[in-house]
Write a structure and sequence with these properties.
With about 475 residues, this protein is mainly beta. Helices cover about 5% and strands about 40% of the residues. The strands form seven sheets. Strands 20, 23, 25, 27, 28, 29 and 31 form a seven-stranded mixed sheet that branches. Strands 10-9-12-17-14-15 form a six-stranded mixed sheet, with no helix packed on it. A hairpin with a 2-residue loop joins strand 27 (about 415-420) and strand 28 (about 425). It is globular.
């Protein structure tokens, strides 16, 4: 008899609608029936919440299961995940499982990999989770607003052997644009946001709340799983008085190291696992900051040591996480492609291809299209592939940001090696699924095209995506 691991939902999951997953579904490629399976039910619907505490007004948000963020979904490496998703919104939606190397039919891209889930309808997602790490889920339908109103949640794929820390925490970090009344400023898709930095908010939350403090104990070793679920905000997290060690990026293990410049830089959709040792005295208080610029820093909240005796006085070296089964790129035989990003304000872009026709920049801007990849501005998810890639071959993309703005570029269905930035080799050649390009920057990434299908390649600044900065690559 096949071995099966059943997930028994706690109270939080019971809020999702409760019914166990039933039915059959077609997937791209076989799903082995003998793999252990974790089953969840997930529903998207409006709710009300207080982001900034009990004394602040409730606002209308969109949620998975009535909570911000949605329920944390956990599976073991190598298990199958089966999620029965129900749409209780008043508009179509999908669920994209960000960073997971899954079959194309389960990728959650409307019209490209699946029919959008209409109000009142359900869809069953099922796929194997081949890589341990920190991932997340969110809509890919009108994501600039659906994510912006609250639809996101953590997907954690656990290592077969628990990582040796005293505890772990997942922080889903959100960014909200609120008015003086505490409610949304309802300007999603604003043309200024599209053409500039995207929708930058004025309120940062961790796990759906503006935090007061983070309680710790002296001598603890904590694993923090950090997820930037913001539409556009670039985070630069600084842990005052502490020395975090980065052990994974975008879910993939990396040699433990100090963060560059002392801060954890996370563009939208990017993740980092860090180990934080509590090396200070009981009763100490330190500040966690967002440092977006050289002369700018914002207090997020305080890290407060309780008065308990230390768990330990000394710490050993931070151990590396076990690697995932990723195909190493064959750089000697890699096929090279240049991918150019252009558009936005202060751009030299004069025109682009829209629906197969060349359109001047002024006409594009009037219709809300302000960005292009390789000279093509995409109006929706379904369009001609930017590149056709041969299954099993190695590809090296030289990404060239000709714009004045930052772009977190995300490739679906694959992980890639980050090789260099402006000609300088990366010291850790980290595996990523989202790479942050600074203005006028040129980076090299490489990957094996080992997952067949049509895969999105787009800016995860969701207003830039809305404004045309998306493409697809076909692997066959």
């Amino acid at each position: 008899m096949a071995s099966r691991v059943r997930f028994h939902p706690d109270r939080r999951q019971l809020l999702l609608g409760g019914a166990s997953v039933i039915g059959m579904l077609a997937v791209a490629g076989p799903v082995r029936a003998d793999l252990p399976v974790r089953e969840y039910s997930l529903a998207a619907y409006p709710a009300r919440t207080r982001l900034a505490g009990i004394n602040t007004p409730e606002i209308d948000v969109w949620t998975y299961g009535g909570t911000l963020p949605g329920p944390e979904i956990r599976v073991k490496k190598g298990e199958r995940l089966r999620v029965r998703f129900e749409n209780r919104l008043r508009e179509e939606t999908t669920v994209h499982w960000h960073g997971i190397r899954l079959p194309n039919a389960m990728d959650g891209v409307p019209h490209l990999t699946q029919k959008p889930v209409a109000p009142g309808e359900t869809f069953v997602y099922e796929f194997k989770c081949p890589d341990a790490g920190t991932y997340w889920y969110h809509p890919h339908q009108r994501s600039h607003e659906q994510v912006g109103r609250g639809l996101s949640g953590a997907l954690i794929v656990e290592e077969p052997t628990p990582y040796p820390v005293d505890r772990e925490q997942t922080w889903v970090i959100g960014d909200w644009r609120l008015g003086r009344d505490g409610d949304f400023i309802d300007d999603f898709g604003d043309l200024h946001d599209i053409s500039h930095n995207g929708r930058i908010g004025n309120t940062i939350t961790i796990n759906g709340k503006v935090p007061g403090k983070f309680a710790v104990r002296a001598g603890e070793r904590i694993r923090l799983r950090l997820i930037n679920a913001a539409s556009a905000r670039i985070l630069a997290l600084h842990f005052d008085g502490h020395q975090p060690k980065v052990v994974a990026l975008d879910g993939q293990p990396v040699a433990p190291h100090d963060p560059e410049g002392g801060s954890i830089i996370l563009g939208p959709a990017m993740r980092a696992d860090i180990v934080l040792d509590m090396t200070n005295e009981p009763g100490s208080v330190f500040t966690i900051l967002d440092r977006p610029g050289r002369n700018r820093s914002y207090r997020l909240f305080d890290m407060v040591y309780d008065s308990s005796a230390p768990v330990r006085k000394t710490f050993g070296a931070v151990p590396a996480l076990p690697s995932n089964p990723l195909a190493e790129p064959d750089l000697e035989n890699a096929v090279r492609h240049v991918v150019t990003l252009n558009g936005g304000m202060m751009s030299r872009m004069e025109s682009a291809i829209v629906d197969g026709k060349r359109v001047d920049a002024h006409t594009m801007f009037r219709s809300g299209l302000m960005w292009a990849i390789n000279g093509v501005a995409a109006k929706d998810h379904v369009h001609e592939p930017m590149l056709n890639l041969a299954l099993g071959k190695t590809y090296l993309f030289e990404l060239v940001n000709e714009s004045a703005w930052l772009h977190p570029m995300h490739l679906h269905g694959h992980a890639f090696r980050f090789l260099s930035a402006n000609g300088r080799p990366r010291p850790h050649r980290e595996w990523l699924d989202t790479v942050l390009l600074w203005p006028r920057e040129r980076v090299e990434i490489a990957f094996v095209a080992d997952n067949p299908g049509d895969w999105m390649f787009h800016c995860h600044n969701l207003e830039h995506q809305l404004g045309g900065m998306m493409a697809l690559v076909r692997v066959s």
